[in-house]
């Protein structure tokens, strides 16, 4: 039954996109063919500086803010509007083509199709997000994927939608995070844990040492989004999480991030979602994510006198970023769900210190021993 | 000679997060934490009941609250850098409409100290400036001392108001004269971040401590180091002098609270009930026979101790 529904859903979404493109292009053509016609396109957008909140049912960071409409006409009041109008139509044309041919394209592909016209990648990214929101679909329904940035290694088996099985279990081999568009189910029966790592360097070290094979907690999966994760990495981890729920045991998901404001913000992005693109969060958040470290207290209490260089002073940007998170991110609010994160951010301000995961390399137990020890402590109760 | 201090109650779970700072008046103790409200507990009642919760004081949390001796005025500084002045009438605190902090709220001030009469506010800024504002004169800035630019982590005013001491992240400790506007001493001895400075009640000594785990006593007349009190095995985060100047109280990152005898230069008692960081320690005013002190930190409660009086 389920696949049938899925097929109906997919064709419904496709129809929605097709219909939007057809209608928009048709009305623009109508305008162009009349004397003094002014072709226009209207985009819907969630106001960015809006009221963020955590949806209690799915644990995702969402936007309760108002919607704004923005209309670009041709030739418009000024050259900026004319430029906006033309680039929105160019992006729409590329998407129409991608849907026609059934090919996935990346945001980078669109940008590089005419860099001087688009000026920068962010311009393209914003238009795509606005179009997806305006039509009311997921970005992938526009056949646009961000080029995968994340890496994964460990014990999972992908069942591709094509029916092919991809076994990732050969040790010491890692790969780009697969596009969730192509992934059906994921078999996680051999994995005992999933570790999400902020930094690529730390990830590479763990892969080289085969940590996913020889951890004290058993075999597992290592993933990194290389800093702030992109949508495909988050979508893949969410898929791991959804598939883990079919297991007859709890598969713990851990986050290993730096003890600094970016580390905390990255963990918040995985667990609750991004503050910039809230409309996707409910499909991408991983509500059961356990903070493995690094905490300032881990560093201070382990600090012997010769290890003082492990601690780094906050920059004024760090301090401003922490204050902004305390003010604006409901995750870290006093009434929010992560009082411990709030405390950690405030402790950084108190001590004016931060620390990087790499400092664990030189500790007695080393990075691997430290992770073994942290994973051995019992998981706290989670509501979800 | 050891001395005993017994637990004499606590304000359990006074705050939902770490308590960063305590301020003591003649009858009350004010506390600040990672949430927006300040709490006021009575110290005249042996149960230390909550008497007031000042809600919405600092949205992103408050890391320091100070009060003047007679308990008429308090000042708090939030993580966002905002400074608020409070006045007390019949035991109830409210925003002080008569005071203005002028430019202090936008000067990147981290640590603050209040004069005994509550008129002058001294602050150490993140760029190492030490400034003084007159709260009665629309917050006019009346002093600005420049140091080498290292983050000002802590500050104290002598009881007579004649000197200011500041501690900095690079280990520097300075003493300034408020009368001449000069800096008589740049004190040596600490190389790691300083987290607490405190003048003895009559201003004879300045105590300073921090990440070097040692408490250094300076003679404020000569600027010489007169003692090193060692015994803490973690960073020392706060210091407080007893009213007679006989004892010094210290709290550290590993949850230890120590009392030091200034006469013998030795630790007379160590409390280690708390397993995690003690952010602040303060002596309470002496009521009755025995001295009392309070400690607070990551365990979210305010713990009270009194001197054991035997015989």
UniProtKB/TrEMBL annotation, chain A:
Span of domain Topoisomerase 6 subunit A/Spo11 TOPRIM: 193-363
Top-tier EC class: isomerase
Cofactor: Mg(2+)
GO molecular function, a single term: metal ion binding
Domain Spo11/DNA topoisomerase VI subunit A N-terminal: 83-144
Gene3D superfamilies noted in UniProt: 3.40.1360.10, Winged helix-like DNA-binding domain superfamily/Winged helix DNA-binding domain
Gene Ontology biological process terms in this record: meiotic DNA double-strand break formation; meiotic DNA double-strand break processing; reciprocal meiotic recombination
Residues annotated as the enzyme's active site: 112 (o-(5'-phospho-dna)-tyrosine intermediate)
Name this polypeptide is given: DNA topoisomerase (ATP-hydrolyzing)
From TrEMBL, chain B:
Cellular component GO terms held in the UniProt record: nucleus; protein-containing complex
WD repeats by residue range: 102-136, 187-228, 229-270
Pfam family, one: Beta-prop_EML_2
UniProt entry tagged with the keyword Ubl conjugation: no
Keywords for the protein's UniProt record, in alphabetical order: Repeat, WD repeat
UniProt domain EML-like second beta-propeller: residue ranges: 109-281
Protein name: WD40 repeat protein
Organism: Aspergillus coremiiformis
